[in-house]
Amino acid sequence: MVGAPDAHARNYAVLLDGDSVELAPLFDVASGFAYGVRPGSSRVLSMSVGGTFLVDGIDRDAWARFADAAHLDPARVADRVRDMRSRAPDAFAQALDDVDDDVDGHTAELRERLLPELRVGAAS
């Protein structure tokens, strides 16, 4: 959804509360969309989705293969992917808003490169 090229999705964590154990929300998620791709090459991920490592190849069928392999309901996974993809641009924008950019302007530059790419993904 966000083109994370370096397997940050493997950063799993749990929330412990007494005897209760829950999977924590995602954290430390990086996006490769802020960085260009050499002409003639593709964005490659370090983890596949449904056996696909190319960002451009991750479609509804790839998510369905993932769901089947994980013994999940493909329709529910598709709904969740669509929901998360639609929320990603605003979530990243809000995170960027929280960064103090008074000194060097890197956050503004990152915003200009990243958010349009996330919005394209959200619209698909």
Walk me through this protein's architecture:
The structure is a single chain. This protein has three helices and four strands, in the order ββββααα. Helix content is 42%, strand content 14%. The mean pLDDT is 87. The strands form two sheets. It has a two-stranded antiparallel ribbon. β3 and β4 (52-54) form a beta hairpin. It has one domain (8-123). It has helices at residues 60-69, 74-97, 106-123; strands at 14-17, 20-23, 44-49, 52-54. The longest helix has 24 residues, at 74-97. The termini are close together. It is globular, with a radius of gyration of 16 Å. By secondary structure, it is an alpha+beta fold.
Task: Throw out a few tags for this protein.
alpha+beta; two-stranded antiparallel ribbon; 4 strands
Rg, alpha carbons: 16 Å
Number of strands: 4
**What topology, given as strand order, has the largest sheet?**
1-2
The oligomeric status of these chains comes to single chain
Taking the alpha carbons of the first and last residues, their distance comes to: 11 Å
Instruction: Tell me the helix content.
Output: 40-55%
Structural class: alpha+beta
Largest sheet: 2 strands, antiparallel
Continuous helix count: 3
Q: Provide the succession of SSEs.
A: EEEEHHH
Structurally, the number of domains stands at 1
On the 0 to 100 scale, the average pLDDT is: 87
Q: Segments where pLDDT lies below 50 for 5+ residues?
A: none
Task: State which percent range the strand residues make up.
Answer: 5-15%
Name the shape in a single word. Answer: globular
